Amino acid sequence: MKVAIIGGFLGSGKTTAILNLGRQLSTNDQKVAIIVNEIGEIGIDGDTISSSGIRTSELTSGCICCSLRIDVENTLRALKEEFDPDIVLIEPTGIAFPAQIRDDLATIGIPGITFAPIICLVDGKRFSTEFKQIPKFIVTQIEEAEIIGINKIDIAPPERIPEVINRLREINEDAQIMQFSARISDERFQKLFSNIFRDSHTQKNASRLDSIEMSEISTYSAEFELLPEIDLDTARSVSEKLLLKLKEEVMNKSPLFIGHMKAIIDIPGNMVKTSLTSFEDLPASDIFEKSENNGAGLKLLTAVTGVEPDELTYTVERTVENVFESENIQLKKLDSICKTKDFISLSDLSAK
User: Where is the CobW/HypB/UreG nucleotide-binding domain positioned along the sequence (predicted)?
Assistant: First the structure.
């Protein structure tokens, strides 16, 4: 069983990359499982990845290189015993240090476990801003990587890429640097896919660091029931309106914030995922068809720099209430739970 850990800061495109890799691996007759870690109490990326039908286990309420180490070990053992995958793709939270995860998993004694090279994704558009705000954290993620993927080159200004490459080389001169868009399955992305089958050759043991503290990130997550049920167009428009308003409110307190705002609205037959990753961005939505016919619901995660936790909680909850009240949609906040989901059929759901 090979384990591939794909790290990178919040909003670097890990979920999109893993979803694309998982689909390609399944097409190539590989038995694939995915472990997703969210820093908040509510899982969002697991819902997105499970839309591919790939077996997905989701861990929430902590970081798997810190507080959830035992959970990820137990999850990996269970996957081995119950599913016996050829490849396990691990998406740690964006404020994790992947080398610490690899070091922990290498000592648990699962027979036949091997590791792909440690992969770190960076957002070609945002990297310079991230480096200026939290340099120690970003440097640690990059120093540990064997492969560095400069992602989102389809939307990054071309003149920024040489600067990003030079900075990455200053931090880690040994890593292989790739450029691609995880949304596009072209030759560039195929190079990343091919490297999943290689073995990690790093001999370094990662330092034990508190990644949550070093990231300087505050987080808020919650889940809501929506009444009445809404249609697809309304779900998309209200989700984008919510994140745009949240961006404005956060910028009042942290004008150059980085991080990730994510919202999923579930409606019968569809799921709308909307994301925003910095003060420079506008909300962007993806729509997924799904076979389940559950009622309407909202999942929300906000993880940003420059705002104190209590202040972020107040800001997000007030903004959610105001936006949905303006749309005449009632909200009911739900208790959070940590969930493990299993999806086997690749044909049940597909991204539009």
Answer: 3-178
Total structural domains in the chain?
Answer: 2
Model pTM above 0.85: no
83 domain-assigned: yes
156 and 243 together in one domain:
no
Q: If DSSP codes are grouped into helix, strand and coil, which group holds residue 204? A: coil
Question: 149 φ, ψ to 5°?
Answer: -105, 115
- For the chain, what is the radius of gyration of the CA atoms? 19
What is d(CA 32, CA 42) in angstroms, rounded to the nearest whole number?
24
Q: Are residues 256 and 141 in the same domain?
A: no
41 and 27 in a common domain: yes
Residue 69 and residue 100 in one domain: yes
Q: Are 267 and 4 in contact (CB under 8 A)?
A: no
Is the separation of the CB atoms in 350 and 285 below 8 Å? no
pLDDT tens track for 265-322: 999 889 999 999 989 899 999 998 887 767 789 999 999 999 999 999 999 999 999 9
Element at 298 (helix H, strand E): strand 297-305
Burial of 309 (0-12, 13-18, 19+ CB in 10 A): exposed
3-class DSSP state of 301: strand
Locus of tokens 């906040």: 333
